[in-house]
């Protein structure tokens, strides 16, 4: 949870003592601007840690904006695990198919995996667990909510969100104070 600095809040109350409703509106504007910026930053941070496309991330991220009655904003991610082909999959003519999910690790070979087309029309990576031909399994990687909730991503986003919120709040207060003159 990201919170507003108390020094900034007392400063805003002193500046806008004649218009106390403006402090609340400044906070709402700052929260909404921060939530929008953090959605973009979330996508960038996930892509710094994982080998995944921005479109796959952004399609699962939803924001809930603040209002004058609800003084909080939310960034939520909801979705299923991504197909392994959403990450980096390399297939050579010889040897196993190699998959890379995280950027910090290299591509790792997955025995029993191959690229092909199924009877139902799916084209991509498939995995054979047993020595028997069937059943084939379509492999999945982590979901976007799992990537979003990882310590690396959250640890990187939290300080940025707090700094942005406090900066935007001060900006909104000064803007509203300038309009009152």
Give me a quick take on this structure.
This protein is an alpha+beta fold.
What does this structure look like?
The structure is a single chain. This protein has 181 residues and is α+β, with helices and mostly antiparallel strands. It is 44% helix and 21% strand. It contains five helices and ten strands. The chain has helices at residues 6-15, 20-49, 54-58, 144-148, 151-180; strands spanning 61-64, 74-77, 81-83, 88-90, 97-100, 108-110, 113-117, 123-128, 136-137, 140-143. The chain has a three-stranded antiparallel β-sheet with strand order 4-5-6, with no helix packed on it. It is elongated. The two termini are 35 Å apart.
What descriptive keywords fit this protein?
44% helix, 5 helices, 10 strands, alpha+beta, 181 residues
Number of β-strand runs? 10
Distance between the termini: 35 Å
Count the DSSP helices: 5
Average residue-wise pLDDT: 91
Oligomer: single chain
CA radius of gyration is: 23 Å
The residue fraction in helices comes out at: 40-55%
> Shape, please?
elongated
Secondary-structure class: alpha+beta
The helix-strand sequence is: HHHEEEEEEEEEEHH
Strand order of the largest sheet: 4-5-6
| Major sheet details | 3 strands, antiparallel
Are there runs of 5+ residues with pLDDT below 50, and where? none
- Percentage of residues in strands: 15-25%
